Amino acid sequence: MVVYLSLGSNLGDRDNYLAQAREALSAEFAWARFSKVYETEPVDLRDQPWFLNQVVELKTDGTPETLLEWAQQLEKRLGRQRDIPKGPRTLDVDILIFNDEVRDEGELTIPHPRLTQRRHVLVPLCELVPDLVLPHAGYSVKKALAEVKDRSQVKLYE
Ligand code: ADP
Ligand code: MG
Questions:
Q1: CATH at residue 15
Q2: How far is the CA of 10 from the centre of ligand 2 (A)?
Q3: Which atom of ligand 1 sits closest to the CA of residue 86?
Q4: CA of 68 to the centre of ligand 1 (A)
Q5: pTM to 2 decimals?
Q6: Interval between CA 93 and ligand 2 midpoint (Å)
């Protein structure tokens, strides 16, 4: 299964949290490819620090549930707390796409419900796979980015 995850951090040493996440992902999955890192303006709850965001492509034989569980353990290990919904976080790992899976019931929504509405997700995803057709939408990542209404800033992070 080919999977795309989004990584985000806007609390504490953001660079270091992403570096630790990359290290853990590379150790756990035989094959992982990372986008560049972007510095992005917060969208949902705007009065909080800017994020670092990155997308990873990986291959797994597992299920979405086992992957989310693993990702949430990683978040926890890196000090993630869930006191303010949409608030600052040391590390957030979301499942963007899981092969051609489409599901909108239960705990997990796949593809991620805000995938096509967020520049901070579409920009790094488009860097990796511009021509990938989104299984729930039927059009490409490139087209989703060209049409997204979100105007929040997404800058390449050096
Ligand atoms: P945020 O929406 O800010 O990422 P959390 O990381 O706390 O908030 O996630 C809230 C819940 O969203 C999780 O408990 C998880 O079960 C659920 N969820 C539903 N779909 C997904 C998905 N595609 N990827 C990650 N989490 C998801
Ligand atoms: Mg999350």
A1: 3.30.70.560
A2: 13
A3: 3
A4: 9
A5: 0.97
A6: 5
pLDDT at 36 over 90: yes
- In sequence order, which residues have a C-beta less than 8 Å from that of residue 2 and are 6 or more positions away? 57, 58, 59, 97, 99
pLDDT of 150 over the 90 cut: yes
Closest residue CA from atom 21 of ligand 1: 108
Q: What is the pLDDT of residues 83-128, one digit of tens each?
A: 889 999 999 999 999 999 999 988 899 999 999 999 999 999 999 9
Residue 111 is predicted with a pLDDT of 98
Domain holding 105, by residue range, is 2-156
Torsion of CA 20, 23, 25, 26, to 10 degrees: 170
> Is the minimum distance from the CB of 103 to ligand 1 under 6 angstroms?
no
Our count of domains for the chain comes to 1
Q: Is 111 helix (H, G, I), strand (E, B) or coil?
A: coil
d(CA 132, CA 35): 15
Ion ligand 2: residues, CB within 5 A, are 92, 94
